[in-house]
Design brief:
Elements: H1 3-17, H2 30-39, H3 45-58, H4 62-65, H5 70-77, H6 83-101, H7 109-113, H8 120-129, H9 140-148, H10 157-167, H11 173-186, H12 201-204
Helix pairs in contact: 1-11, 2-3, 2-8, 5-6, 9-10, 9-11
């Protein structure tokens, strides 16, 4: 199969397995989504969803968040890991959103990536899931699976994102990246993976997986 044919097979299989997609991070608006995505770095979505209600009970808007001390934020989010960096980032991005963007999360890649603690992946998640703009956030699951399915060389996250954007229609990106994440967790984990039992690796898997 060509890469395009493999991509079509992947898209069809994932749509069959996950006809409905929703982001696994609980949120109510672009700001709470942004904070949740920042917290999710090197932390499970389950843990983030346990911590955000505690944080948002104190501050649910950027105006409220910037009034908290960084130490207060850090105490609440400590279970998510990397709390010193994340607490400074959340406090700083909240202040910038209020002072430079009228209290609204900017629907712009460059403006989002300029915020503290917000990289390209976080900006892509917010743009796709909060504002419906086509984006293909690549996390560890997507990076791993794109390599396993020979859709990308796996040389870098940036290369994987570029390869996937070329292979899949733009209008499918927002649902597709979530479907790949769900599939990676359920069928195609990093460890203990049996490619022969995997609905996609059994068809497209690199030969290295079977050695």
């Amino acid at each position: 199969m060509t890469r395009k044919e493999k991509a079509a097979f992947v898209a069809e299989k994932l749509a069959e397995l996950y006809p409905r997609t929703s982001i696994p991070l609980d949120h109510e608006d672009p700001y709470t989504l942004l904070v949740a995505v920042v917290l999710s770095a090197q932390c499970t979505d389950k843990k983030v969803n346990e911590i955000t209600p505690l944080l948002f009970a104190k501050a649910r808007t950027p105006q409220q968040m910037m009034k908290l001390r960084v130490e207060e934020i850090q105490d609440i989010i400590r279970p998510c890991g990397l709390s010193p960096m994340k607490s400074k980032g959340i406090h700083g991005l909240s202040r910038i959103i209020v002072e430079e963007h009228g209290g609204q999360v900017p629907a712009d890649f460059a403006a989002l990536e300029a915020l503290p603690a917000v990289g390209h992946k976080t900006a892509s998640v917010v743009m796709s899931q909060a504002f419906g703009m086509p984006a293909f956030p690549v996390d560890t699951h997507i990076h791993r699976l794109a390599w396993r399915w020979t859709l990308s060389t796996g040389h870098s996250v940036e290369r994987t994102e570029a390869d996937l954007k070329r292979l899949f229609p733009e209008e499918t990106w927002n649902d597709l990246h979530l479907r790949i994440i769900y599939f990676g967790r359920e069928y195609c984990p990093a460890k203990g993976h049996d490619p022969l039992k995997c609905p996609i690796c059994s068809v497209l898997g690199r030969k290295e997986l079977f050695q």
